[in-house]
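README: folding subset

This subset contains proteins for which both the sequence and a predicted structure token string are available. Records are stored as plain text. Below is the entry for Protein TsetseEP domain-containing protein (365 residues), shown exactly as it appears on disk.
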Amino acid sequence: MLVVMSHWSYIALLLLCVAATLQSIESSKYASKPFSRHDKWTQTFNGEYIPIQFYNAMRSAEASKQSLQNQLRNFLEQLQKNLTTSTLLSLIDNTQQNTEHQLTKLYELSVFFYTAADVARFFARDSEIFFEIAKNSSYTLLLQLRQIPATQPTAIKLLLTNYFAEMEFFHVMFSEVIDEALEYTQNILFATQKTFTYYADVQRFILQNWKFKCDIGCCKEYMEFSQLYSSQIFKCAAGHGLDVAFDVFAMTELTSKYVMRQLEFRIQRLFNCFYFGNYEIRCKFLQNAERDFELLFSKIEELEIFFDIKIKNGRVSALRVRRQAQIEEGVLTGVKSYDACIPQDFPHSQMHQSLKRCFYNINEY
Ligand SMILES: *[C@@H]1O[C@H](CO)[C@@H](O)[C@H](O)[C@H]1NC(C)=O
Ligand SMILES: *[C@@H]1O[C@H](CO)[C@@H](O)[C@H](O)[C@H]1NC(C)=O
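--- output ---
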């Protein structure tokens, strides 16, 4: 603060330069923001360059990830416990109450899958917002460089231009790798969500329309059937692919946080160097922008390698090429992958005759 006060007149001069520089900023989005020049320069000394939205979006996405993981945790144990048939025999004399209890449990099972689908959708939404904001934040940081007063010696201007170009290139690469993470996680989450919703719909439809004969034998058989297919479908829709999606999200989140801090550090350093003058000493890094960004480029390279290993067999690079084709295929991709988890002609083909006799009114879903 003391420094700022003692350089008051210098700041006033800088503000004039900033105002001039701002006029040349093409981004209408940026220019249309309410903008207080004084605040902006105060901000440069507080070092708050990373947009607050970045941290907010990260927090929301992290919370949604947690609730999806919580929702899915211990599913198989819960399923076993809820659909147990061992209590059936011991309560044999209270059949009415007993079957009602079992029907409630079956109903709750469909609620579970609806909820899981919703929670997966929230995570898909929040992680998408986070990835988009990460890209935007890297761009916002890039734009900060344009605030450096334009009235610099030509040699310095050239170095600045070069530095800006390097940072811009980094922004492009960073955005690409974020897009890969985005595409992978969205596809997986969409498929999981579709499978869960479809399976819940089928269960609900059976309970509401097939007119279940609620005797002990039928209850037992249908519960066993539900247990078997629920665990099978769950393992498929929330299995390896979803684990990879969680990992891809977590690693991308970590890298984004690191990248933002590094970019912020670079901008802070740059502002300091122009504020205090003495380019030759303070601005050495300007002379080799490529080297200055080496660490950052290697960080996103690491992320790429992580994707390649996780998603396997260089599928990531294939994805990059196929992206356009996939957009054209559109929803088809999703439909295909959720069909993969629902057995062919479910549930008709999977039910034995003895179980089918437990329904008065079997009709197509
Ligand atoms: C099991 O039952 C509990 C409480 O009745 C319910 O909250 C939970 O969603 C059920 N889980 C499954 C997998 O059906
Ligand atoms: C990111 O920026 C683009 C264009 O600059 C804008 O259209 C989009 O709404 C922004 N996204 C978020 C999530 O802020």
